[in-house]
Amino acid sequence: MKKRLLVATGGGDCPGLNAVIRAIVKRAYQKQGWEVLGSIDAFNGLLSDPIQLVDLNLETVAGIHVKGGTIIGTTNRGGPFHWPVKTPQGKWVTKNRSKEMLQILKDLGISAVINIGGDGSQRISQRLFQMGCPIIGVPKTIDNDLSETDFTFGFQTAVDAATDAVDKLVSTAASHHRLLILEVMGRYAGWIALHAAIAGGAEVCLIPEIPYDIHKVKAAIDRRLDSGKKFAIAVVAEGAKAKGGEMTYVESETPGTMKIKLGGAALKLSRELKDVGVEMEIRETILGHLQRGGRPNAFDRVLATMMGVKAFDMVLNKEWGHMVAYRHPDMVAVPLKDAVRKYNYIDLRSDLVKTARGVGICLGD
Ligand code: F6P
């Protein structure tokens, strides 16, 4: 009888998820004796009534490595530990269905699980592992904020999208003599913003790791105008905040999520700059989910494929409770408990930050 492997993709999607799924399936078929199933919308497929699983075979995964999104769907709502349930009074509460899920896995004869996801998903992996689940994690996020891995796939494609936006903004900013502010994603880390600012040649880049002084930002724009240039570009991470200030966010009211949704940093910066006397015309662009959708670039396809093959080999080696990590040029297995312990934020002493400062980008400090 064939062994059964379950694959799930959880949390926000990112370019490269399909390339991981394809690599897992290809490697599993190469090794023979394996059947691969995909749970629709993360683990919610397993917990749905009726159960929603799909067969992942060489035909269903053919050519998907070039496609954005995930063919098995994803969600950042629900999951085994926080399943949303409506009470008879109409109030939403959450229920822990993890034991039930482990029983479902057993009943289905599933002997291994690969969970592809960001920090939230890998916390779920770690908790399931502690309960005895034979699980392997694969890190993904455009934010690049997971520790223990040099890069997450999806990040470089998001940087490409943000850099392309900067390039486009430069031409229109130059024509209209404006300050154009681009707000990019990244949650509490400034990786996308800083990479796009360096790649695109922005004058200002504000990241969550460096709370900004609005007067310093104004001074940088004044210097730019004094040098005879008539336009400027500022890249602002969605998690950026002024010194002593707060990030701009709204609280999500979706049942089963208690997520803070960041957004509004560009508008806020625009208002603050006007308040301190910046007179040039300012416009704001919010790049949003254009950074998450679409085809993965070549780097992310390769990284995702390497991670998929490594994840399946970790299944063969029964390295449960571990996550795949990229330590250039190798793929290694790291304990999930270490991977979820802390986030990967930009080190202010790093060469990336020195480079930005070295080409005159104002980081707001
Ligand atoms: O974590 C990926 C990410 O795109 C963040 O950069 C962003 O803050 C968040 O997800 C947006 O989530 P949603 O698509 O649920 O609004």
Structural summary, described in words:
The structure is a single chain. α1 crosses α9 and α5 (155-176) crosses α6. The chain has a seven-stranded mixed β-sheet with strand order 3-2-1-6-7-14-15, sandwiched between helices. A four-stranded parallel β-sheet has the order 9-10-8-13, with helices on both faces. The protein has a two-stranded antiparallel sheet with strand order 4-5. The chain has 365 residues and is an alpha/beta fold. It contains eleven helices and 15 strands. It folds into two domains: 3-153 and 296-339, Rossmann fold (3-Layer(aba) Sandwich); 159-292, Phosphofructokinase domain (Rossmann fold, 3-Layer(aba) Sandwich), CATH 3.40.50. The structure holds 6-O-phosphono-beta-D-fructofuranose. Residues 12, 76, 118, 141-143, 185-187, 238, 261-262, 292 line the site of 6-O-phosphono-beta-D-fructofuranose. The site of 6-O-phosphono-beta-D-fructofuranose has 13 residues, from β12.
Largest sheet: 7 strands, mixed
SSE string, helix = H, strand = E?
EHEHEEEHEHEHEHEHEEEHEHEEHH
Query: What share of residues are in beta strands?
Result: 15-25%
Please give the share of residues in helix: 25-40%
Give the CATH architecture of the largest domain: 3-Layer(aba) Sandwich
Query: Given the helix and strand composition, which structural class is it?
Result: alpha/beta
Radius of gyration equals 22 Å
Q: How many helical elements?
A: 11
How many beta-strand elements?
Answer: 15
Largest beta sheet: what is the strand line-up? 3-2-1-6-7-14-15
CATH topology label of the largest domain: Rossmann fold
- In the CATH scheme, the class of the largest domain would be Alpha Beta
Question: For the terminal residues, how far apart are their CA atoms?
Answer: 63 Å
Uncertain spans: none
What is the 3D shape?
elongated
